[in-house]
Specification:
Chains A, B: It comes from Amycolatopsis camponoti. Chains A, B: This is HTH marR-type domain-containing protein. The structure is a homodimer. By secondary structure, chain A is mainly alpha-helical. The first copy, chain A, has a three-stranded antiparallel β-sheet with strand order 1-3-2. The structure holds a DNA duplex.
DNA sequence: TATTGTTATACTCTATAACTATA
DNA sequence: TATAGTTATAGAGTATAACAATA
């Protein structure tokens, strides 16, 4: 007996239970390729960028805290922070009272690069969403937010 | 002078030009983790699954054609087809008239595993989209399709 | 003894290049 | 010579484990 379910396809119109995953993968790959193209000339890979995101969102924090924030491991974080430190984008400073802990803080140059990335990403984001109406873009971001943050109330 | 642009955040409510990319990444990672959990007990990794998808969408084809379909390289494809062949899910048969080419064809077992994956993925997909209304789920899939397949008309 | 960070090591995956067999 | 497939090798990235310093 044949299955009642539609089979997954790598084409538009997939009605299978894998459609969401395949579409998210394809849409992400496309968006990521373009946005990484913005970061690359600035000397940033995604792993560096996401650390800057965490630092600018949560403020200066330890490497261990960064590991929790970005879902990495401490050995990898050492290298990422090394890269950022050597590029002059963050500083390591021992925490007074517990010298095991190094507080990672963005430098002025780090924040400047971070802001420049945003300026360069603006037209890229507009181009990515160019096929959608303005209301549709906001709707997509809302639906994705509810998918990415289940159980959290949507920002009004 | 400070930038006028909102800065990227790893939290809901991000209004930055990186928001779409970060949300797609997070939503994909969540969906992928759950859907790969469906494939793993069947002995399939994503690279095997996407080859089965291509074969069931485009019919039997050469390894070279599979490379084009999934965006891989021929050395990697050899190993993926090796795995599928050893598991009895596909066959390699020389093409009559050009014995350089091996036609890859899903076996009955290959199609059965493919269909079983769909059956197991059904409740997972429902759970992933559970926070959305039924109309919203269809809308999200439509918007993602237009993002993932720019320039192609949306399926009605 | 437990924890932060570092270093060393191993492992996975992919990409590159060399090789074979057919054409 | 050109192509399909295979094999061998190397590279990037990550994860695991041992280590040093501090608590």
């Amino acid at each position: 007996m044949a299955s009642r379910l539609a089979r997954a396809t790598d084409r538009p119109g997939d009605g299978s239970p894998f459609a969401l995953g395949l579409l998210l993968r394809r849409a992400h790959d496309r968006a990521a390729a373009q946005l990484l193209g913005v970061l690359r000339p600035l000397g940033l890979e995604f792993r560096h960028f996401i650390v800057l995101v965490s630092l600018h969102t949560g403020g200066p924090m330890s490497q261990q805290a960064l590991v929790g924030a970005v879902g990495s491991d401490k050995a990898t974080m050492v290298r990422v922070v090394d890269d950022l430190e050597h590029a002059g984008l963050v500083t390591r400073t021992p925490r007074p009272g517990d010298r095991r802990v190094h507080t990672i803080t963005p430098t002025a140059a780090g924040t400047a690069v971070f802001d420049t990335a945003h300026q360069h990403a603006e037209p890229v984001a507009e181009h990515l969403l160019g096929h959608l109406g303005s209301g549709e873009a906001a709707l997509l971001l809302d639906l994705l937010t509810r998918l990415a943050f289940p159980g959290e109330a949507t920002i009004p």
